[in-house]
Amino acid sequence: MHRDAAIGWGAVGGVVLGLLLILHQTGGGIQVAFGQPSAHYVWGFRWEQVEETQVGPPPPVSLPNNTREAWAVDLLARLGNTQPTPETVAFIVQWTIAEDACMTACGYSSAWERWNPLNTTQTGYGAYATINGDGVKAYPDYESGMQATVQTLSYGYYTEIVAGLQTNDPERALRGLYGSPWGTNAVHVEKLWRAL
């Protein structure tokens, strides 16, 4: 094992603190030179100078171009499918479009404004409003809505939907949607999905 690798963080912190105390007591300063990296040894420890890096908050994470796709990929991962096919993602995207179209056409707010892209009726998870007679909920944030959706899909009525989504078999998921009590008209979802 290399000698430098054997030093624990406590030892490194002690050396740094010791150096700072010596510099303070002697009136010394730290001189920073930019350009070529250099290395030197202090008390047998190797110290490297690296080029200047930007200090401050990290740059903002850019959002995916398609929020519906990002949401679908997140849902699939939470259901156990970390390698979804484009067809499986497209199925969920079209399902969210079918849900949203129905709600906005009926005068309700967008499912995205309520953090409920599949319009679950799941109680809890911070649900703060019921927006229609079917019991569709509004959630306070992305995570609450996502957890409510995953919980809803865990019920026995939806095993075929989930099995199809987990195994990248959107045909099976569609058959499961037809056979389930989910409020969306499966014909509408199928029409949108097959039109791709």
Describe the protein in words.
The chain has helices at residues 9-26, 67-78, 86-105, 142-153, 159-166, 170-178, 186-194; strands at 38-42, 45-49, 129-130, 137-138. By secondary structure, it is mainly alpha-helical. The chain has a two-stranded antiparallel ribbon with strand order 1-2. It has a two-stranded antiparallel sheet with strand order 3-4. β3 and β4 form a beta hairpin. The longest helix is centred in the middle third of the chain and has 20 residues, at 86-105.
Question: How would you briefly describe this protein structure?
Answer:
The protein is mainly alpha-helical and 196 residues long. The protein has helices at 9-26, 67-78, 86-105, 142-153, 159-166, 170-178, 186-194, and strands at 38-42, 45-49, 129-130, 137-138.
What distinguishing features does this structure have?
196 residues; mainly alpha; two-stranded antiparallel ribbon; globular; disordered N terminus
Distance between the termini: 58 Å
Report the helical percentage. 40-55%
Flag low-confidence runs: 1-64
- Oligomeric category: single chain
Q: Could you tell me the strand content as a percent range?
A: 5-15%
H-E order? HEEHHEEHHHH
Query: Biggest β-sheet, characterized?
Result: 2 strands, antiparallel
Q: Cα-atom Rg, whole angstroms?
A: 27 Å
Tell me the strand order in the biggest sheet: 1-2
Number of DSSP-assigned strands: 4
Structural class of the secondary elements?
Answer: mainly alpha
Shape: globular
Count, helices:
7
How would you state the average pLDDT, rounded?
76
Number of discrete domains: 2
